[in-house]
Amino acid sequence: MRLVLPNPGLDLRIPNYEDLDRMDKEEADDRPKWDNKAQYILTCVGFCIGLGNVWRFPYLCQSHGGGAFMIPYLILLVLEGMPLLLLEFAIGQRLRKGSVGVWRAISPYLTGVGIASMLVSLLVGLYYNTLVAWILWYLFNSFQDPLPWTQCPLNDNGTGFVPECQRSSTVDYYFYRVTLNSSASIGDSGGIHWPIVLCLLAAWTVVAICCIRGIGTAGKAVYVTAILPYIVLAIFLIRGLTLKGSLSGIKFLFTPDVDELIKPTTWLDAGAQVFYSFGLGWGGLISFSSYNPVHNNCVQDAVILSVITGLTSIYAATVTYSIIGFRATEKYDNCISDNIMTLLNTFDLPEDNITTSNYEAALNHLNSSYPDTVLGLDIKTCDMQTLLSENSGLYWVTLFDNFAGSVPLLTIGLFEMIAVVYIYGIDRFNEDVEFMVGHKPSIFWQVTWRFISPLIVLVILVFYLVTQVQQELTYLVWDPNSEEFPSLASVPYPSWINVIIFLLAGVPSLAVPVYALCRLFFDCCKKTIVSEKS
Predict the structure, then answer these.
(1) What ranges do the domains of the chain cover?
(2) Mean pLDDT lowest for which of 125-134, 311-320, 349-358, 450-459?
(3) Which residues does 321 contact at the CB level (< 8 Å), separation at least 6?
(4) How far from each other are the two terminal CA atoms of the chain, in whole angstroms?
(5) Which residues, at least 6 apart from 393, have a Cβ–Cβ distance to it below 8 Å?
């Protein structure tokens, strides 16, 4: 006996198999379709593969011990991501509707699931397009020789370089001070930065054009937008491997820190990253699959996209860490060179007395001879400066990244699995998959849909909330007056930020139960009015 909650009127809200075959064959059906299977797969790849794989995944690898993060990520990709991906593909292809329509058809009380997906897509789109605007800014400014971020600008009176740039680096100064015009607090907006506003307008214009024209335009655009990133990453990888220290960065990426595997936060971030990597819970994949032929093999699509997503994340991280290895090595060498010059000047030594090859041995000897003088000149100091210089804090973008797509996506994913398994009915869903692809889902899909995937998402969600409540919320700022400068300073969020966090994470998460309760209230009121009139 399987638990399936009462759901009256379901058969009247969804098309039967005969209707699906008729709708698939009739030319009168005005719903657009994909030109071919490659176009559909590339659209899904373009939707899933993005900043979450190229930007967020390498950042999390660095935060959680390099290769150690890949282990839980790949495990959860198979046990959490792939089953939910097939579920979204199959339910969209079966019901032939977008995200809101699918969940309303399953039950009017589940309309909030589609609404929550829309809210998350909007919020994540806000900061994703901000990142695109930054990319456009760098693209427009790259048509210069020399590049503007390769040298420090002159000060106001033209007598020297800007001290803030000299104390940090040309790349960091250009990003934080020229591109973003960063303030030292999230509460200090610093005014409108019009060049970035224009880039943001350009980014939203492209999005609007694709949305207005529908899959006819988006389906053709993906031949460029889905393939071009792989070509660009290949160019970056080839270039990165020619730089000094690139292999050190790649080695760090694939060397796991086993201690990280016992930390709950590593698994929590890996679980949330799976949702980012696949685009799960956003509603886009459900909409894309609804334009497929009814007998499209959605099981095969889910497996193919899972493999592509996992390999792309590793590929993008490899490219990123080849560059990080170069930057870290460059800053390490600069730090060593500065220490060597300090030692030569302090002890009035010949220029060839200390070099990078004998620096550590000479330093240990001098430390033992003059401990009070050379105590601060240590090779570990250079390691620490290199590590800290690779941190990044992007204020509002970081706030959106931490909260707009974490708890809401996990909540939506959990509601989706509960809705299909216990409200739509897992037996009915299995019959739908058999009708569409020709065979029933295997035991792997059965076990993950019923038990493993919902349990994993629930555990991740609970532990995520517990850890967030217990820790102090901080963010990183670019502050030239900070003692840590040129590293970013960690400061606590102001108290009013809790309201923003609730809007980002609480409102989309509560959309499902709030809509269901409102619907129940109105239905009860309607029944009461009808009974009184009768």
Answers:
(1) 10-533
(2) 349-358
(3) 58, 61, 249, 250, 252, 253
(4) 39
(5) 475, 476, 477, 478, 488
